[in-house]
Design a protein that fits this description.
CATH superfamily: endopeptidase domain like (from Nostoc punctiforme)
Order of helices and strands: EHEEEEHEHEHHEH
Strand content: 25-35%
Shape: globular
CATH topology: endopeptidase fold (from Nostoc punctiforme)
Number of domains: 1
Radius of gyration: 16 Å
Strand order of the largest sheet: 4-3-2-1-5-8
Distance between the termini: 33 Å
């Protein structure tokens, strides 16, 4: 069966909201998204519906050319799955996308993480909770803790890091990465990243 790659994108956009989250997590990247192509044109998450307002959120198909991501730094992880697993994840996302007016951002759940209180709400996710729920659909990954306690760094714990640096550097035509036998951008990884 043909293998497909799915990419988990962790970003730091430098916004006030991200800086506030970073104070708690002490991690370099605090937003998680999932992509189904290596050039990151098909990227999904739960996040801002309006770029200037972090409190109006829900299901989003992210456009990495938006100003919000123009100076973002990132870490990109890869999960290789078979075609059936890939299709399960895509169907799950398409179901949410088709009913996105019924979904909202789980802000209460996000604020409960520091207290280790799982807050699960119907049709509500924060970014890493959503990405973890998509990965579970593949049947290849199972998390031991409640998804409503998952942080971005927990979601990628067992995945392969393929890039770290400026998001726009990854996305330029000159540096689109051909993984595996060619090159990657891991030389700039700091020690003790996670």
């Amino acid at each position: 069966m043909k293998e497909r790659n799915v990419y988990i994108l962790l970003t730091d956009t430098g916004t006030l909201f991200t800086k506030a989250i970073k104070l708690y997590t002490r991690k370099p990247f605090n937003h998680a998204s999932i992509a189904f192509d290596d050039d990151l044109m098909e990227v999904y998450s739960f996040g801002r519906k309006q770029p200037q307002n972090p409190f109006v959120g829900g299901f989003v198909r992210e456009n990495l050319d938006d100003e919000l991501f123009s100076k973002a730094t990132c870490a990109i992880y890869r999960l290789t799955v078979d075609a059936a697993e890939y299709d399960k994840m895509k169907r799950y996302i398409k179901q949410i996308e088709g009913n996105q007016e019924n979904y909202r951002y789980n802000l209460l759940g996000l604020f409960a993480i520091p207290f280790r209180i799982p807050v699960t709400r119907k049709n509500a996710f924060f970014c890493s909770q959503f990405v973890a729920s998509v990965l579970i659909q593949s049947g290849r990954i199972n998390f031991t803790m409640p998804l409503s306690l998952m942080t971005p760094s927990m979601v990628v714990q067992d995945l392969e890091l393929v890039f770290q640096g400026n998001l726009q550097d990854y996305r330029t035509e000159e540096s689109l990465y051909s993984y595996g036998e060619h090159h990657n951008n891991l030389g700039r990884l700091p020690l003790n990243l996670y």
